[in-house]
Specification:
35 strands, six-stranded antiparallel sheet, Beta-Lactamase, transmembrane, single chain, 25 helices, catalytic activity, binds guanosine-5'-triphosphate
Length: 878
């Protein structure tokens, strides 16, 4: 509210002053105009009055002259004894002319003593005047006085006239009659031309008795009985000489003044036209008004300018305040340190700058100095931070202030708190008797720049050390950068490669293709890759793999980045590899064995001609297909364990029987895993598949031969051990009980010694035969050597069954052997042992039987010993 009133006061003060000034001025002007108007009017009244007095004097003069004329007539009349007549009296250059102007032609009449007109001229007179007051008066009064009558209206002419009469006496002094002169008031006013009166002015003669008036206005004579005046009251209440028309008789305003003719009861009135009378005043008033209007305009303009200026001043002041607040806020909100330093000068004429005072600063600026702003505001720099002096900063401030040239620079300081080293950027701007200093802490930026420069150096080093040639082009395809490797690969220096020149490095035969591809890439923005040739200045051809891609930001290509890879050696290697592959294929195709390569996904990737011949028998396409697809579910099920082992890294060999056609064939298959370059992961395996049907048969034959005892035809030791191994595995797998007998012919040596080796051999054969007849066909009977035999009995129900059989053998061998006439009697001893699923080896089991045999021998021979007791399986026991 207070603020509103203050603003209202400010806004209306100047206009109110202007209005007051104008009011005062206009009141003064109005007062002056009024005074001048009154004066002018008064002057006009005086002038009119003067004229009226002149008129009155003139009229008076005429009337007096007329009176003199009657007096002169009376004198002459009485001298002539009543014979004088009017013609004589008024003749030219006569008596009358000496008194009155001839042109008046005044009506004259002589009345006798009876009141009859006895002579008259220049007008009509009633013949009889005996009873008129003036006649009676003259008749009765012998005094020589003239009677001036009140204006009389002529009944015939309707004019009013002033009647002047004088008694005529006879010689004896008796009454002789009356001389009568009629005077038209118009004469007084008509003869008024010589009066200096303005056009439109009115000259009047008014009877005070009956109100008749004669007036002249310019050339017009007005006779009226209705013109009447009242006296104008002056401002002080007194009547002045001005008259006011009671009723207007024309359209012209006049200032009327009068002069009385008391003797004749007449009043001379002159009306000066107000317009002309007041013309001078009107002109002055117009001048006053014009000057006042001009002055008012100037005052208004002045006030307006003042108001406007005041408004501008207020606005400027508020803007200054606002600017100060904004500046304060900006300084407080600034991320920079802001200081205002005012110069401290030396006293004296030179006024040299000694130091600066901290006039203002923001909190950040104070923090940078290590203070709070309130603590150092108003202090001198030498007190707050002496280093500013010693480090030359104050000198810089002084230079900026004196040269009025702003200064901006970056520098490093080590005297500020919080950090050992600050990188700062300051701007020093001169202000009034001081400087404004804006300080920005650019330490982090400097560190970033340093890091960036290091990164750039690193990047440049990386680029130069890169095995790839690098090329960068702008949006128009002009090369702007190549690295060192690019120079080495293409044979162009960096300067030579700039712009479009880099394309010169490409072999002329490849340029057209490259340029077309680059044009296509610029349209489609699809990266381009190709193998091209470069030609060095010395003619050397370098094969390169060239790749280039557009750098797109917001849908706009702003450049291209390309790489150049020297693939000359790779290309040679590839060629060599192709040659090697070709050679290997030739070799592989000439091999009788089937060779293939299968990857980790069990997909065929390679096979030789033999493999193709084998698997194309059914028209099957192998390459790119899996084992399952190629071999079918049944064979895949057989092969899969081996495949998985190979893929687990195992080199393995197995036989595969192929009954797909009429002939039964056997293949030896070798899987050799292929490790990756690191030798860690298996990426596939090689397959060597060879038909070994013939070899297998021969082998089986040889095996059989190797496992038969040549003398007896029984299984020999090798066959026995193989069989024992297989039987134990079967018993272990199936939980069956098996038995092993180890037997020896008792006292065989004496037979040899007695009957010779041939008989001994025959005995061995006979023993074998009897043994074969004793045992089941499923039992394996073997001769280990000499007179030692073994029997393997698989899937026996009880140990007793085997023991019974052992007893049966012992018993059977007690009978004599007739060996082509030589009768030999022997016996046999047996060690019998059992096996189901114990963790013993075949050798140990055989040794166990041998020990039992030894026990049987020790027991006197011709018997058996069995052990240990093998419990039945848990399920059976139950
Ligand atoms: N005729 C013949 N004799 C053989 C053959 N192989 C080994 N012999 C003999 O067989 C005899 C084996 O004797 P041993 O078993 O050690 O002794 P033994 O006389 O049977 O005595 P015990 O076994 O203790 O009852 C040795 O004299 C060998 O020379 C062969 O193939 N033919």
């Amino acid at each position: 509210m207070l603020d509103f009133l203050r603003r209202l006061y400010r806004s209306i003060l100047l206009p109110a002053f202007g209005v007051a000034l104008l009011t005062f001025m206009w009141l003064a002007v109005a007062y002056q105009v009024r005074q001048e108007k009154l004066t002018a009017r008064h002057d006009a009244v005086l002038h009119s009055q003067s004229l009226a007095r002149t008129l009155a004097e003139h009229t008076n003069h005429l009337l007096r002259q007329t009176d003199h004329a009657t007096q002169l007539f009376k004198l002459k009349y009485e001298e002539t004894d009543g014979r004088l007549r009017l013609a004589e009296f008024s003749r030219k250059n006569g008596l009358l002319d000496s008194l009155l102007p001839t042109k008046l032609d005044l009506p004259l009449a002589i009345l006798n003593s009876d009141g009859h007109v006895i002579d008259s001229q220049n007008g009509y007179f009633a013949p009889e005047h005996k009873h008129t007051p003036f006649f009676k008066s003259h008749a009765s009064n012998p005094a020589d006085v003239s009677l001036v009558s009140t204006p009389v209206v002529d009944s015939r002419t309707k004019k009013w006239q002033i009647q002047i009469s004088r008694r005529l006496n006879k010689p004896d002094g008796s009454f002789a009659g009356v001389i009568l002169v009629m005077m038209d008031p118009a004469y007084f006013v008509e003869d008024y031309d010589r009066m200096s009166i303005d056009p439109g002015g009115a000259v009047m003669l008014i009877s005070r008795e009956n109100g008749m008036s004669a007036a002249r206005i310019d050339d017009q004579v007005i006779i009226s009985d209705s013109i009447d005046f009242t006296a104008v009251q002056a401002s002080n209440g007194e009547a002045n000489e001005e008259l006011q028309l009671k009723r207007r008789f024309d359209a012209i305003d006049r200032i009327y003044s009068s002069a009385e003719l008391p003797r004749y009861l007449l009043m001379a009135v002159v009306g000066s036209p107000t317009e002309s009378a007041m013309a001078h005043f009107e002109r002055r008033r117009s001048v006053y008004y014009i000057i006042s209007i001009a002055a008012s305009g100037m005052v208004l303009l002045f006030v307006y300018l003042l108001v406007r200026q005041a408004y501008r001043l207020r606005r400027t002041a508020s803007m200054v305040i606002e600017a100060q607040l904004m500046l304060r806020a900006a300084a407080d909100a600034s991320l920079d340190s802001v200081y205002l330093f005012k110069a401290c000068r030396m006293r004296g004429a030179q006024r040299e700058i000694l130091d600066f005072t901290i006039a203002d600063l923001n909190e950040r600026g104070a923090q940078l100095m290590g203070f709070r702003s309130d603590d150092i505001k108003g202090k001198r720099l030498i007190e707050v931070l002496p280093d500013l002096h010693s480090q030359g900063f104050v000198e810089k401030y002084r230079h900026v202030l004196e040269s009025r040239q702003p200064l901006e620079e970056e520098f490093e300081v080590d005297f500020l708190p919080n950090r050992a080293v600050h990188w700062l950027q300051h701007q020093i701007v001169p202000i009034t008797d001081g400087v404004a200093v804006n300080v920005r802490d650019i330490t982090s930026r400097k560190e970033t720049e340093l890091a960036m420069r290091q990164n750039q150096a690193e990047l440049t080093a990386v680029n130069d050390a890169s095995p790839l040639g690098l090329l960068r082009a702008d949006a128009t395809g002009h090369c702007t950068y190549v690295n060192r490797t690019f120079e080495l690969i293409t044979g162009l220096t960096r300067e030579e490669a700039m712009g479009d020149a880099w394309i010169r490095a490409v072999h002329p035969h490849d340029r057209a293709v490259l340029q077309a591809a680059l044009g296509h890439m610029a349209e489609t923005r699809v990266p381009y890759q190709d193998t091209l040739r470069c030609v060095h200045p010395d003619g050397m051809i370098v094969w390169i793999s060239f790749k280039i891609a557009a750098m797109v930001v917001d849908g706009q290509v702003y450049g291209y980045v390309g790489t150049v890879d020297d693939i000359t050696h790779v290309r040679k290697s590839v060629m060599a590899l192709r040659e090697s592959e070709s050679r290997l294929r030739t070799i592989a195709d000439t091999l009788p064995a089937m060779v293939a390569y299968i990857d980790a996904e069990q997909v065929y990737r390679f096979h030789n001609l033999a493999y193709e011949r084998e698997f194309n028998r059914t028209g099957t396409t192998v390459l790119g297909r899996t084992i399952l697809e190629t071999m079918g579910a049944e064979r895949h099920a057989f092969l899969e364990p081996y495949v998985l082992r190979a893929l687990a890294g195992e080199t393995l060999t197995f036989e595969e029987d192929d009954n797909s056609d009429a002939t039964e064939r056997t293949y030896e298959v070798v899987y050799i895993p292929q490790m990756d370059e690191d030798g860690i992961n298996v990426i596939g395996f090689h397959v060597m598949r060879q038909d070994i049907t013939v070899q297998k048969r021969e082998k089986q034959r040889l095996l059989r031969l190797s496992q038969v005892d040549a003398l007896t035809g029984l299984t020999n030791r090798a066959g026995f051990l193989q069989k024992l191994h297989d039987a134990m595995g079967s018993a272990r797998d199936n939980g069956n009980l098996m038995a092993v007998m180890y037997m020896d012919i008792d006292r065989f040596k004496p037979v040899n010694d007695t009957f010779g080796h041939a008989v001994g051999d025959a005995l061995l054969k006979a023993f074998s035969a009897r043994l074969t007849h004793t045992m089941r066909a499923s039992d394996t009977i073997a001769r280990l050597g000499g007179d030692e035999f073994t029997i393997i009995m698989e899937r026996i129900h009880r140990t007793d069954d085997a023991a019974a059989l052992a007893a049966k053998i012992v018993s059977a061998m007690q009978a004599d052997f007739d060996l082509d006439g030589t009768v030999v009697s022997i016996s046999t001893s047996i060690g019998l042992t059992f096996y189901r699923n114990e963790d013993v080896s075949p050798a140990e089991l055989l040794n166990r039987a041998d020990i039992l045999l030894y026990e049987a021998k020790q027991a006197g021979r011709n018997t058996f010993r069995a052990g240990p007791v093998i419990p039945p399986p848990a399920s059976n026991a139950a």
